[in-house]
Write a structure and sequence with these properties.
Number of strands: 6
Largest sheet: 6 strands, mixed
CATH architecture: 2-Layer Sandwich
Strand content: 15-25%
Radius of gyration: 18 Å
Number of helices: 8
CATH superfamily: Ribonuclease H-like superfamily/Ribonuclease H
Structural class: alpha/beta
Distance between the termini: 32 Å
């Protein structure tokens, strides 16, 4: 089935998120109370809400998108290349506006598909929710509220779901799948758990963008392996 997909019609995507505020104490009081309730479901009894605030970026109600990287495979002199571009900004609304404009223009090709790892449970809904919160129209391809799984399976690809083969009890990280398929790992600098610190403490958005782009490169490699095709050389990676 995957072999029928033209990989050049796929837009590979990854997002990086962070808590909306540098510290729990800097949140508005009403959100501190709401985070207290939300975090009660996963923090230890002896832990304070502030002690787990670094996880707030996972939740679209308490986090924000700080980078979206996208990549496309194309042919250059008969050789496949991956062109990657990042939309990174401290101003989430500006970031989303630029990304949505790009996606709407790109989506004019009816054959377009998006691909992300765990995209159906994280990247796609997170982007849609943050668009709503920022007063930005949701891109048509992501406006799937209430849609059935079979309604979106041909346009919103998810390498995690594809790997599950119907097994809903299993989560496999992109890093692990890269190891399984002998794909160079993108986790050679930071990992997702460190993004909030790199953002709020180091203020290094460029570093986060590079990390996000590496994930997109790894994601595209994994998809090629799913199709039974050889992976790309590192030299095929082009950041614009």
């Amino acid at each position: 089935m995957l072999n029928q997909i033209n990989v050049e019609s796929v837009l590979f995507i990854d997002i990086e998120t962070a808590p909306q505020f540098p510290k729990f104490e800097e949140m508005p009081e009403k959100f501190q109370k709401l985070w207290d309730k939300k975090s009660a479901y996963f923090r230890d009894k002896e832990q304070l809400p502030s002690e787990v605030y670094d996880r707030a970026g996972i939740y679209s109600e308490f986090g924000k998108i700080i980078c979206i990287s996208v990549g496309t495979i194309y042919q250059k002199k008969g050789e496949p290349k991956l062109r990657v571009k990042s939309y990174a900004n401290h101003d989430e609304k500006k970031l989303l506006y630029e990304f949505v404009n790009m996606l709407e223009n790109y989506s004019k090709n009816s054959a377009i598909k998006l691909c992300a790892h765990n995209g159906l449970e994280f990247d796609y809904p997170y982007i849609a929710r943050r668009c709503l919160i920022n007063g930005i129209s949701i891109p048509k391809i992501l406006d799937i509220a209430g849609a059935k799984p079979w309604d979106v399976k041909d346009t919103l690809l998810d390498t995690l779901q594809l790997w599950k083969f119907g097994d809903y009890k299993h989560f496999t990280s992109l890093e692990l799948l890269c190891a399984v398929f002998d794909i160079p790992t993108p986790k050679d600098d930071i990992d997702g758990s460190e993004v909030a610190g790199v953002y709020w403490i180091e203020n290094d958005l460029d570093r986060i963008s590079k990390y996000c782009e590496k994930d997109v490169f790894a994601l595209s490699q994994l998809f090629l392996r799913y199709q039974g095709k050889p992976i790309l050389d590192q030299e095929a990676f082009e950041s614009v």
